Each structure stands twice: as C-alpha cells, then as structure tokens.
Amino acid sequence: MSRQTRISRDRKRRRLRQVVERFNGRCVYCGTETVKGAGSGQVTQPNAATLDHFIPRSLGGQECIWNYVLACRACNEEKGDRMPGDFEIEVIGMMMELFPSKIAS
Which residue range(s) make up the domain with 32? Predict the structure, then answer.
C-alpha cells in the first residue's frame, strides 16, 4: 500500500468520526441510529453510516467538512445527487401517504 493511499484512508476515517460525532450517530434525514455509541465509531448494519455531500458535488457542493452530513445508506442512495430540500419534500410526501392520520394530528 502506498503512503498516499494510507494517508487518504486515514483522512476518510477521521472525517467520518468527526461527522458521526457532530450528528450523534444518527441519519440527518430519517433519524435512524447508524452508529451505536456515537463516539465509538462502531458502524451497525444494515443502516451503515455514510458520508453524504449535503449539497451534491454535481450541483456545486464542495469537498469540505461542512458539506458532509451523516446519512444511513438507504437515505444516501435515495437522495442521490438531489438538493436536500427536494429529497425532504419527497420523504414528507411518502410519509403523508403511508401515515396520514399520524401526520394530520
């Protein structure tokens, strides 16, 4: 393994730890616990913690710590390269269809 690869991998791990701590191990979109004991860094399955670019890189988002949020794998894949508002509006619509009585009250 090259020195550059090792540094890059260490940087990614450190970034993930920082984001896990910032969001207490929970997905910012659905609230699912993605990490048990947020400080420990133990990722659970099937809702493994992923780093999501809050503003997608394809839409001008930057590769920096403030643009990363913690997302479960399902939400990150579903959000894709959409802006957060577009994704959240879709999630709210799905929740209203699935649980109309709980949301209306």
Answer: 3-104
Q: Which two tokens stand for residue 25?
A: 């191990």
> Tokens for 7?
């540094």
CATH number of 20's domain: 1.10.30
Token code pair at residue 36? 């048990």
Residues of the chain with pLDDT under 70: 1, 3-7, 36-47, 88-105
Phi first, then psi: give them for residue 88, nearest 5 degrees.
-65, -40
How many structural domains is the chain composed of? Answer: 1
Task: Please indicate, yes or no, whether the overall pTM of this predicted structure exceeds 0.70.
Answer: no
* Cβ atoms within 10 Å, residue 70: 27
